Amino acid sequence: MTTWRHFCEIQPIAGEILMNSFKKNRLSHAYLIQGGQGTGKRTLARLMAQTIFCEQKTAVEPCQTCRNCKRIKSGNFPDLHWIKRDGLSIKNEQIKQLQREFTYSSFESGRKVYVIEDAHTLTVNASNRILKFLEEPTSDHVAIILTENSQSIIPTIRSRCQMIDLKPLSQEHFQTKLRENGINPQNTRLISQLTTDLQEAFQLNEDKWFAQARKLMLQLIQVYITNPDDAFLLLHDDWLEHFQKRHEQERGLDLLIIAFKDIIYFHIDDPKSMVVFSADDPLLKRAMMTFSYERLLNILQALLHAQQQIRQNVHPTLVMEQLTLQI
After folding, report:
1. Does the pLDDT value for residue 255 go beyond 90?
2. 76 vs 80, 81, 112, 256, CA distance in Å?
3. Are 198 and 40 in contact (CB under 8 A)?
4. For position 311, what pLDDT does the model report?
5. Which of 97, 83, 51, 194 is nearest to 147 (CA)?
6. For 160-186, what is each residue's pLDDT tens digit?
7. Which of 60, 132, 53, 52 lies closest to 98 in space, CA to CA?
């Protein structure tokens, strides 16, 4: 559960700005929220929606227990419309459908909110359609636009939104929060390399899919080291079956990148920076004997290139087969 108090601990400036807007009843008709991956953009958008629609809030804090709060959390509230990219972009037809929805009266609350994720992927036509939406603001409509890079949003949209800039969380602060919530030190180190969003971190810690992903990552590295001829077998029988969606494929490559960085750290005698392995791990010692420092740097470049290919929608089987040949 995220409250304004919790959010202000990790994003004090953004939190204070928005809390004051709610306290003074001066909510803007449109917000452009910028922040890197894991800075809490989706969490903030959901918290803002709950604050707008909560039936029993205390000051600005949503109760988290009323019918509206629970439905927003579950993604099933009719006056909150959440737009996500379709494939590589947010398309004109998605925004057109959103506009159709907003021609109807509010179902329950008298207000409507729409959230656009990954707004930097809006097509030109979709951006122009959103602009027309913003040019005719009404008091009962609120837009929350999320992006990792506000400079990729057309200037005419930026000029009609209040900018909220989310800062990267410090590793120390984030890891402390995870430990305080009962996540063990090993998982804390790994998860903090993948996200700085507390809610996502807690989900990863409990996620059976993620636990299996970590296990497969270690198995694949062991095969690369001990029996490279079996790598393609593991790849097709297990890896590609587990990492099916694009965000899952990116997560798998993230795990491999972190693990191979650990081997580099061991090479340069910097065990404190390691995340996946402990200094006395037999697999780590064997990896150092198998991969020279120069080869590890090449592998890291290959992993980063593979990740880029996945983002460009190259077929994952081809990407992973090429990567295995390079390793």
Report:
1. yes
2. 8, 9, 14, 36
3. yes
4. 86
5. 83
6. 999 999 987 777 778 888 888 888 888
7. 132
Other CB atoms within 10 Å distance of the CB of residue 106: 13
- At 70-110, the pLDDT tens digits run 999 988 898 999 999 888 889 999 999 988 887 776 666 67
Q: Which residue has the tokens 């791990």?
A: 281
pLDDT of residue 108: 64
Please name the residues in contact with 230: beta carbons below 8 A apart, sequence gap of 6 or more: 223
Higher pLDDT, 107 or 154: 154
Q: Which residues contact 225 (CB under 8 A, 6 or more apart)?
A: 283, 286, 287, 290
The pLDDT assigned to 60 comes to 92
Q: Rounded distance, CA 186 to CA 70, Å? A: 32
Measure the CA angle with vertex 133, ends 131 and 136; round to 5°: 105
Structural domains in the chain plus CATH codes: 4-165 (3.40.50.300), 207-326 (1.20.272.10)
The pLDDT of residue 289: 92
- From 115, 55, 54, 110, select the one nearest 80 (Cα to Cα): 115
Q: What is the pLDDT of residue 61?
A: 94
Specify whether the backbone of 214 is left (phi greater than 0), alpha (psi in -120 to 50) or beta.
alpha
SS (H, E, C) the chain: CCCHHHHHHHCHHHHHHHHHHHHCCCCCCEEEEECCCCCCHHHHHHHHHHHHHCCCCECCECCCCCHHHHHHHHCCCCCEEEECCECCEECHHHHHHHHHHHCCCCCCCCCEEEEECCHHHECHHHHHHHHHHHHCCCCCEEEEEEECCHHHCCHHHHCCCEEEECCCCCHHHHHHHHHHCCCCHHHHHHHHHHCCCHHHHHHHHHCHHHHHHHHHHHHHHHHHHHCHHHHHHHHHHHHHHHCCCHHHHHHHHHHHHHHHHHHHHHHCCCHHHCCCCCCCCHHHHHHHHHCCHHHHHHHHHHHHHHHHHHHCCCCHHHHHHHHHHHC
